[in-house]
Amino acid sequence: MFSSNTLSRFQSVETPFYYYDLQLLQQTLTACKAAADKYDFHVHYAMKANFNEKVIQKVQQTGFGADCVSGNEVKKAIEIGFSPDKVVFAGVGKSDREIVEALEQNIFCFNVESIQELEVINDLAAKCGKKARVAIRINPNVDAYTHANITTGLEENKFGVNQWDLPACAEVLKKSANLDLTGIHFHIGSQITNLNAFKSLCVKVNEIKAWFEERGFVLHVLNVGGGLGVDYHTTEETPIADFEAYFQIFDEFLERKSGQEIHFELGRALVAHSGSLISRVLYVKNGIKKHFLVLDAGMTELMRPALYQAYHKIENISRPGAQTSEDLKYDIVGPICESTDCFGKEVEMPESFRGDLIAIRTAGAYGEVMASKYNLREQIVSVYSGS
Ligand SMILES: Cc1ncc(COP(=O)(O)O)c(C=O)c1O
Ligand SMILES: N[C@@H](CCCC[NH3+])C(=O)O
C-alpha cells in the first residue's frame, strides 16, 4: 500500500500518471546485482521494458549493461552513461542506418538474428573500416510455458537463426573478414514463471555451444537472454523477484569454460513492481448485468491487458480498508474507443465513486513505454518517490 504522504501527493497531480517507487527499484536492482555477482554473471538491462530516464539512470548506476532493440535505444543508453562496451543490440529488423550508427559507437556486440543480417553487418562494417562484434541469436525451440504472444524461442517464432541454419551460419562467419564472433545468444520469451523452462534452455545451450566449439569457434560469451517473470497477484507480498533461485539454475545447469562469460538480459523482473498506473474514476455506470468503473486511463496508457489479457492488480486507493463484497464487482474500463479497453473484468472492489483514485499495480515493465497516442491522448507523465 502507498504511504499517506504518497497518497496526499497523488491528490495534487493530474491523472492519469505513472508512479515509480525508486526505493523499491533500487532494492530490486541491488538484490539482482548481488545475486548475479555471486556467480560472476553479467546483466544487461533490457531497455525495452522501461526507458524512463530516472529508471535507466538507476539501472546504469547499479553497473548493469544495456540490451537495446533499436538504434534509438542504443543512442539513449550511451547518452545516459552506459559504456558502449556494455551495450548489446538485438532485433530481427535492424536497419542499415541503425547498424552503421551502432558500429560508429563501437558497441559491445550485435545479437544477430539471421544469416542475411550477418552478411549485411559484415558489408557495412567493411565500408566503415570496422570489425563488428557479433553473437548469433539462435532459436533453441524451447517452450517457455508463457503466453503465446510473448514466447520467442519456438520454431514458429520470427526470432533468431534456426538450428538447421547453423552450418550455413558457420560458413558465413568463417569467410567474413569484418565479423568477430563473441558468442551465442538465446531468449525464449518473457514473463516466465516456470523455472524449468530455463533448465531446458541450459541443456540446449550446452548442446549448441559444443557444436560451435567442435568446429573451432571460440565463444567468449553465452548470452541466455531474459524472461524472468514476476507475480502480478502478489505485488506487495513479493515485491522483489527471486533472483537467487533464477541464477542458481544457470550456475547448476549451464556448462562454462573458464574465462567464458554468462550474460543475461533482464527487463521485467527489474522494474515491474516499482511502477503503478494511477488513475481516477470518471464515471460509475451501474447496470443490471454489469457495473462499470470508467477511468481516465485506458489501453493507451497501459496496453498489456488489451494486448495479452494480462492480469494487473487493481486497487481503489481512496478507500483503503473499505469492505469488498462478492456481490459488487466492476469491469474496470478506460475512455478509449475500443471494447478491449478494459483493465479487468468482474473485479471485486469496495463501492467506488466518481473521483476515487485507482492504482493499477505492477505496471513498471512494458507500461509507460508501450503508451500510444491513439485517440490523440495526452503524453503520459511520471511521478517518483523514494529517490
Ligand atoms: C532479446 C530479448 N532480450 C531480453 C528481453 C527482456 O525480457 P524480460 O523483460 O522478460 O526479462 C526481451 C523481451 O522479451 C527480448 O526480446
Ligand atoms: N511487452 C510484453 C513482453 C514482450 C517482451 C519483449 N519481447 C509484456 O508487456 O509483457
Automatic annotation (TrEMBL):
SUPFAM superfamilies: Alanine racemase C-terminal domain-like (SSF50621), PLP-binding barrel (SSF51419). This is Diaminopimelate decarboxylase. Specifically catalyzes the decarboxylation of meso-diaminopimelate (meso-DAP) to L-lysine. Pyridoxal 5'-phosphate binds at G227, E265, L266, G267, R268, Y366. Pathway: Amino-acid biosynthesis; L-lysine biosynthesis via DAP pathway; L-lysine from DL-2,6-diaminopimelate: step 1/1. PANTHER family: DIAMINOPIMELATE DECARBOXYLASE, GROUP IV DECARBOXYLASE. Substrate binds at R268, R304, Y308, E338, Y366. NCBIfam families: lysA. The keyword Amino-acid biosynthesis applies. Pfam families: Orn_Arg_deC_N, Orn_DAP_Arg_deC. It comes from the Bacteria. It catalyses: meso-2,6-diaminopimelate + H(+) = L-lysine + CO2. Its cofactor is pyridoxal 5'-phosphate. It comes from Paradesertivirga mongoliensis. Homodimer. Residues 31-272 form the Orn/DAP/Arg decarboxylase 2 N-terminal domain. One of its GO terms (molecular function) is diaminopimelate decarboxylase activity. Coiled coil: none annotated. Its EC number is 4.1.1.20. InterPro entries: Ala_racemase/Decarboxylase_C, DAP_deCOOHase_LysA, De-COase2_C, De-COase2_CS, De-COase2_N, De-COase2_pyr-phos_BS, Orn/DAP/Arg_de-COase, PLP-binding_barrel.
